[in-house]
Inverse folding.
């Protein structure tokens, strides 16, 4: 696998969407090729950062109770 | 003269026990996804009051259709599909204008390549607060916004996202790629503006 092929699978790899065989090929390339490894690490960090920043928010505390009350009227 | 047709008997009212069972299973399998539904609703409507209404309406619709839900399948995906349809039919016109984007016109921008020398570990991300990230997501065109929220916030698989958005998996992939690059670019521009990083003169 060359750098271009490896980068084409960047997000599929990080999203765990590849077959084990392709995943293994990429893992091997990342070990052998530090520049690609650095880029994948950076992108992985970015996705983790997005998720962490957006998941703090949940539904308002009383929303569940209001929905349950509504279901009782059904 | 034709004899009057006998009145059809009314369907038996569900027993209170059956109703209680239905509510219990709904609470266990559907209401556990309330936070996810709310987060998605908030990003779609861009407004807490509308998100609240949209989630309530979604849950009510889902409860009425609960007998159609195939137990053991993906309840979160099923609920999100109901939510998205309700949003498109009833909220989108009121809140935001649907945007269509020429996806190919967006030049993918790799922040990593810009920062390879200055901050290859992306430490500047740590200084960007929640609100700024949410604002960047909210400013994405709708197709990108919904794809990125289902993937990066809710952690859904490409296949599940494709099912909810009713698009091919390949479309999910290309939207995700461009949405993430767009987000990186916005956050990079913000970080340069705030002086967190120097960035490259462009
Ligand atoms: Zn490489």
């Amino acid at each position: 696998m060359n750098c271009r092929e490896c980068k084409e699978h960047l997000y599929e790899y990080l999203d765990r969407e590849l077959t084990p065989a392709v995943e293994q090929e990429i893992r091997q390339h990342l070990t052998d090729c530090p520049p690609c490894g650095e880029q994948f690490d950076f992108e992985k960090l970015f996705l983790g950062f997005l998720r962490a920043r957006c998941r703090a928010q949940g539904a308002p505390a009383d929303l569940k109770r209001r929905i349950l009350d509504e279901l009782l009227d059904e | 003269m034709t004899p009057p047709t006998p009145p059809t008997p009314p369907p038996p009212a569900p027993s209170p026990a059956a109703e209680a069972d239905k509510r219990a299973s709904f609470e266990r399998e559907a209401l556990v996804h309330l936070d996810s539904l709310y987060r998605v609703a908030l990003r779609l409507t861009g407004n807490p009051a509308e998100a609240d209404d949209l989630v309530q309406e979604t849950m009510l619709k889902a409860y009425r259709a609960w007998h159609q839900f195939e137990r053991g399948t993906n309840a979160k995906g099923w609920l999100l599909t109901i939510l998205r349809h309700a949003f498109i039919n009833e909220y989108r016109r009121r809140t935001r204008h649907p945007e269509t984007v020429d996806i190919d016109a967006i030049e993918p921008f790799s922040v990593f390549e810009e920062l390879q020398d200055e901050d290859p570990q992306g430490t500047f991300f740590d200084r960007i607060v929640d609100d700024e990230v949410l604002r960047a997501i909210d400013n994405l065109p709708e197709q990108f916004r919904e794809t990125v929220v289902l993937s990066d916030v809710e952690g859904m698989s490409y296949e599940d996202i494709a099912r909810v958005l009713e698009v091919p998996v390949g479309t999910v992939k290309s939207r995700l790629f461009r949405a993430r690059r767009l987000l990186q670019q916005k956050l990079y521009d913000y970080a340069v503006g705030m002086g967190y990083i120097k960035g490259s003169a462009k």
About this structure: Residues 27 and 37 of chain A are 9 Å apart (CA to CA). The helical segments of chain A are 3-8, 10-14, 20-32, 34-54, 63-72.
